[in-house]
Amino acid sequence: MKRLPLKLTLAILTFFIGVSAVGLWYLSRIEAESQQSLSDAISSVTPVKFTVENPCDYPHPKHRELEPEEAVYLAECFIIQNGYTDLPPIADKSKLTPENVFPLTDEEGLKMRHDSLERKAYSYERSELYGGSWVIMFRFKQHPELVERYGKKGFETMGRAVVMDFFGKRVRIQHSNYPLTMPDAKVINP
Q1: Which end of the chain is least crowded, N or C, by CB within 10 Å?
Q2: How confident is the model at residue 51 (pLDDT cuts 50, 70, 90)?
Q3: Of 149, 152, 154, 172, whose CA–CA distance to 162 is shortest?
C-alpha cells in the first residue's frame, strides 16, 4: 500500500481538525441557544408574585398557545386587576374590562364586583366555547347576602368564569354564573 506524502497527510489532518473545531463551536452555540430558549420558556411560565401596586406583571408568552397553568394565572390576574377580589382594581380605570351585558366599570359597578370572587381559580377546562378557549372557573366569596341570593347549594356548584382564547388574548368574564365543574374540568383548588 502506497503512503501519502507528508504534506498531503498534514493538509488532510489540518482540514479534519478545522472541520471538527467548527463543528464543536457550532454545537456549543446551538446548546447555548437551546439553554437560553429553555430559560426563556421557564421564565415565561414562572408567575410573578402578586402585589397591590401591580398584581399581574405577567410576562405573556408570544406566538404560542398557553399552557393550562399560564391560562389559570392570567385569569387570576384578570379578576384581581378588574376588582373582583378583596384587592383594589388597577388604578387606571380606562383599562378595566367591561362585562358583556352590564359594564360594571363605574363606581357603583366596582362596588358590586369588589370581593365577590376568591383570588384563586377553582377549576379550568379547555373548551370549544367561542371557537376554542380556556375557561377558568372561580368560586363566589361566601358573603351573607350572596348566600341568601344563591343558597348554600349554589355556592357549591356555581361561580364565575374567565374565558380567553388559547393564546391568552380576548380575556373576559362570562356575564352569567357558570358551573364550577364541567365534565372535562380539572379542579385545582378544592
Answers
A1: N
A2: very low
A3: 172
Residue 21 identity: A
Rounded to two decimals, what is the model's pTM?
Answer: 0.67
The whole-number average pLDDT for the span 109-127 is 93
- Contacts of residue 77, defined as CB under 8 A and 6 or more positions apart, other chains included, come to 50, 55, 56, 58
- The average pLDDT across 123-132 equals 89
Separation between Cα atoms, residue 79 and residue 115, nearest integer Å: 10
Q: What secondary structure does DSSP assign to 79-148, as a single string?
A: HHHTT-SSSPPPS-GGGPPPPSSS---SHHHHHHHTT-B-SS--EEEEE-GGGSEEEEEEEBP--HHHHH
The secondary structure element, H or E, covering residue 24 is: helix 6-45
For residues 153 and 179, is the Cβ–Cβ distance under 8 A?
Answer: no
3-state secondary structure of 163: strand
Q: Determine how β-strand 133-139 pairs with β-strand 123-127.
A: antiparallel
- Provide the 3-class DSSP secondary structure of residue 47: coil
Contacts 24+ apart (CB under 8 A), 25-32: none
In sequence order, the β-bridge partners of residue 159 are 139, 178
| Whether the Cβ atoms of residue 161 and residue 136 lie closer than 8 Å to each other | yes
Q: What DSSP designation does 52 have?
A: S
